[in-house]
Amino acid sequence: MTVAYDIVVIGGGNAALCAAITAAETGARVLILETAPKPYRGGNSRHTRNFRCMHHGPLGPLVESYTEDEYLADLMKVTGGKTDEHLARLAIRTSEECLPWMEEHGVRFQPSLSGTLSLARTNAFFRGGGKSLVNAYYRTAEGLGVDVLYEAAVTHLELEGDRVTRVDYTHEGAAKSLSPKSVVVASGGFQADTDWLARAWGPAAKNFLIRGTPYNRGVVLADLLDQGIAQVGDPTQCHAVAIDGRAPKFDGGIVTRLDCVPFSIVVNKDAQRFYDEGEDVWPKRYAIWGRLVAAQPDQVGYVIIDAKSLNLFMPSVFPPIKADTLAELAGKMGLPGDALEQTVAAFNEACGDQTAFHPTELDGVATSGLTPPKTNWARPITEPPFYGYSLRTGVTFTYLGLKVDENAQCSIGDRLVSNLWAAGETMAGSILGQGYLAGFGMTIGTVFGRIAGKEAAAHAN
Ligand SMILES: Cc1cc2nc3c(=O)[nH]c(=O)nc-3n(C[C@H](O)[C@H](O)[C@H](O)COP(=O)(O)OP(=O)(O)OC[C@H]3O[C@@H](n4cnc5c(N)ncnc54)[C@H](O)[C@@H]3O)c2cc1C
Fold it and tell me: Backbone phi, then psi, for 25, in 5-degree steps?
């Protein structure tokens, strides 16, 4: 490679692209090193649908207003207060200017999905989804003269004192290196390295499915942490949801998510229930089911519903297993038939008056005398045909990452690394200690990607 790049951006997802575009607009010469082949470029970002955004009044597709304090309160609720308030407020406040910036750089929005009224106020949906957002950013970046090298896997950053002096990567089977003035790391979490997940979670992690890209293996993250770059977060914290057990090991994406739990009973492989399926409305509970299923034998669960619940939820891409009797359903799903019949009978007996049943509100239609209880939407499973889905834990992204300051800059010991910045999933643990708020991943990547690009360019120019 003959060009002397000012800035190397590692990764090819949302955070990397926001950094590369921002830096290139200052006149800096920017190279993106993306480990994926071109058709798979864009990491987890290509699976996304929306971005959570603060706004004082109607903004783009967003209605009414969503204040900084309300956004922060929503975040604090889901993270149980384990949030860096300073960086969170910075991300929230800056999100408002991001939406018009995104539009200026090619992203198009669409009205929120119908029926999700609260999201129409808080989350801006990308027209064409994350894939189209990523494609728009690549077009914009290339128009600004950013070079992109696909199948370029970064293996090592050489640190001398407080500087990165060399970026090592492989391309077309050959080991290469570059010495840019500034480096931005935007190469995601480590969730696709299932050995690393197993070190953190124990062998059960081998049974987890990874909802997004197989390329986020944490290679650069591990390399930097091994060299003493400041780290943040707990390796067992991640965003994980329950997904259809038939999803592929990687890259199943949003269509494998199962939203029928509130209208079902969920059993383990012994056909025993293990948690209140009706604890709260699904948007507030879907993210705990990844962990609940992870704690069951063989890390599997099974959702059982009957005919009257089939049309109450958004289906996954896979059709349900269908049978005329519970015994037949158990046989098709590999569950012990007698045990399933007993579990369903005990549940049915514990169901009471259902006249208040309301599928989209906490209706208080509960079981009595059953452990664990079902505290809402408890209706007997009696109406054939019966349907079942298998469940597995689907990991979205991990939180252990690079600790950054408000300039997205990395540090070592008590000093800043003078030419190293990080953005997106790889530093999300700097803000999120646990839990997750829908749409905040893209907020973090967009806000800190732009900051990292600006700072990296200021250092280089
Ligand atoms: C199914 C699914 C749906 C989601 N939906 C939403 C949503 O609607 N809204 C939301 O806010 N968030 C959502 N998320 C989370 C969101 O995807 C992430 O928070 C966000 O995309 C992270 O962006 P990023 O740029 O940090 O990482 P990524 O987009 O994952 O990009 C990381 C990039 O780094 C590259 N890379 C990795 N290692 C190397 C290496 N060694 N060398 C070079 N390149 C490397 C990868 O190939 C990839 O291109 C979803 C995630 C999934 C899996």
Answer: -65, -15
